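Q: Could you write out the predicted structure for this multi-component system? I'm mainly interested in how the pieces pack against one another.
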Amino acid sequence: MTDQLLHQLNLSPAVEQIADALLHTDIPHRLTDAEALTLMREAPISLLGTLAVARKRQVSGDNVYYNRNIHIEPTNICVFKCRFCSYRRGAGEPDAWYHDLDAVERLAAERQGEPITEVHIVGGVHPNHDLDYYCEMIRRVKRALPHVVVKAYTAVELHYIIRKAGLSLEEGLRKLQEAGMEAIPGGGAEIFDPTIRQQICPEKPNAEEWLATHEAAHRLGISTNCTILYGHIEQYEHRIDHLHRLRELQDRTHGFDAFIPLKYRNLHNSMSAIGEVSLPEDMKMMALSRLYLDNIPHIKAYWPMLGIGATELALSFGADDIDGTIDDTTKIYSMAGAEEQRPRLTTERMEQLVRSAGFVPVERDTFYRPVVRNN
Ligand code: V47
Ligand code: SF4
């Protein structure tokens, strides 16, 4: 963006100074928390998009990534009762589900011969399961689909079962790693600020426990993702505090591959009265994520949560990943009111979406290595 264009936007002096630092310094400028807050409060959305895409291009050029994946959600029975969750049920409730180990193995075996590269396993925190059960589940999925990467269990599930086993985080994670777990998804982070966390998910592991679980994984060489749940009762300051803690951990470990801003969806949960934030607010959050998290390479626009139109738009606000084909295997967002009630996209549709936003689609594996196919 030229100085003339910047000038035409009629920016406040504070925003102009930050934009100038982001665009014009030789050494990449690291946003302070105060600058991030100023951008969120005062910057026009078009400026945020321009700055975020400029930053994205430095990291991943024209590429936008997608993968071929399925989810397995073994159960929605959960010991916790997060107030924003539309998905959890108590045992015996009418739409509670539970797939035992044989059923999970069958779900994986049904995919034999398909070109998927990743199975993402996440579910409720079932009261009766232990670490051996979680390990056996991974072994069964790998037995059915030896070539896939198993990305499994949120830090919330992991913390619960590892503590229950009386092991250190590192000991527990090593057992799961030996069973075949190669990556950990980013769920369960929600919002780290203790006062907000206490109001929306009081029973869950706290920020320190979530971060310690990921740090232990990084020490073992397990790559992980991270998330934020935004757009409910938190303020911009809480979002920035959350990003601050992630950036600080990443400075020490470099173990996060991707950050996923998750928009609170409000259907059928006990915070429904709050409503949902607007599309421009989602795009501001995407841009802030890209600009603030200067040490996390990939920012994911998760299409089953955002919807397809908003996902395409997010590519003009710094996202460089749209997640995967999914094939109607996750219910977390459809039960919370997302547009996609049966989330499923072909690779052709994903590539078309990326191209129409002006980028180059690249199929990746879990670790962001391009997948080369001979067909
Ligand atoms: O931790 C639950 C969120 C997360 C709602 O790592 C809700 O690649 C919005 O983390 N509105 C689980 N969000 C999903 C998740 C995830 C998804 C896709 C990819 C990856 C990855 C990770 O879903 C939970 C919670 O933050 N969630 N209910 C809701 N009503
Ligand atoms: Fe359980 Fe996860 Fe729902 Fe919380 S968000 S109630 S931990 S399934």
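A: Regarding packing and overall arrangement: The CA atoms of residues 60 and 105 lie 36 Å apart.
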